[in-house]
Amino acid sequence: MSTHRLFVALRPPRAIRETLLAAMHGIAGARWQGDDQLHLTLRFIGEVDRHRAEDIAAALGALHAPAVAARIAGVGLFERQGRPHMVWAGALPHAPLAALHRKVEQLLARVGVAPETRAFVPHITLARLNRSAGPVAPFLALNSDLASEPFLFGHVTLYESEMGHGGSRYHPVARYPLDEATSAAATALTSSHVSAKPSSAP
Q1: What's residue 166's pLDDT?
Q2: Torsions phi, psi for 152 (to 5 deg)
Q3: Catalytic residue among 4, 101, 123, 193
Q4: What pLDDT, on a 0 to 100 scale, did the predictor assign at position 2?
Q5: Catalytic residue at 39?
Q6: Is 123 an active-site residue?
Q7: H or E element in which residue 87 lies
Q8: Per the residue annotation, which of 4, 39, 101, 193 is the catalytic one?
Q9: Considering the domain 3-190 in this protein, what is its CATH number?
Q10: How far apart are the C-alpha atoms of 192 and 174, rounded to whole Å?
């Protein structure tokens, strides 16, 4: 049976993505993200079968939440086993993004998705780092005051991740508008996407 590697995310507008792309330099050997990879993950789901994928897409259709006004604020580093693993741009304010994360969690729990155990840190991944990448400190220092004008996250998107030779490619499956005054029903970008297109992700 085919499986689908899914996650739920917010896509920043073009002007914000351009600001982030302009900052992506200064770490030797870094695997910088492309424009189509820039997003703020609300919830990584992982591998599911087709039926579970359809249940997840339907469950998220019940999402009712206001659009989130946010801004880019600084950069950070995640480590893995004591080594730099990923650099990212932060997003503020934390509270409305965390509230949206919790609502997504609640909807996913209704269809049997196990709760996330890691703390939610709102961020947009800029680069992934292997053992030979670096040094990282100059990049972090140079971009410590990275900032943007306020912008609006107006939709939540369910994505499918497909692994490839150049890294992951992300395919939007369905989009859910964020606005308390309007219906939060999903806008399917490709009506048969989840059921028709298998993922090659491991």
Answers
A1: 67
A2: -115, 130
A3: 123
A4: 82
A5: yes
A6: yes
A7: strand 83-92
A8: 39
A9: 3.90.1140.10
A10: 10
